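#onboarding

Welcome to the new folks! Below is a worked example of what a typical request in this channel looks like: someone posts a single protein sequence, and someone else replies with the predicted structure as tokens. Don't worry about understanding the tokens yet, we'll cover that in week two.

Example request:
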Amino acid sequence: MTTANSESPTARIPGRDWTVRLTGHIDRSATVTCTAACRMPARSRDLAALRRFAAQHAAAHAKVATVRPNAACHCRSQRCDAHPADKVHCAGAVVMVLRHDPSVGQVWIVEEVCESCAPLIPHARVLARANAPARPAAAKPAAQVPAPARADVTGLFSSAGAAADSGRAAVKRPRSGSGRPRRRPGQGSR
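Example response:
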């Protein structure tokens, strides 16, 4: 017994997000955490190295993840908390954005959001766009229509090809080298 696929190709799936956070501790050390099950470096006092690692880790998530065209806007699932002053209706294609406020410098968020929300999110940069869903191929290519038969136009034009086709002799006209008339010998200029 076979069962039909219950998911339709246009069904929306939840938009993904990854949050990479640099957390400071009382002893002036810090740790990097990720919402995905990723291997992180050990707690360290080298904050600059951990900050670089966190930025590179967020960029790696964005690079590896393919934007899914049927994903729902992650921002909408969070009730558009990223842009509370600007309420919009989620619409358009899905894009992958990276949010990072350089003044805070401790949180990097990579998420799938719609094109309407993306420009409203502060400190967000669009990294990738979803590919258009593949359209089903046509069953058969369209048949080519043959060119219409060439009408007999020998009586309408006086071209050399038409005259030869109709069996009449072609009329030859003399060619002159330049567009000026020739002078007869013995005729002088006046």
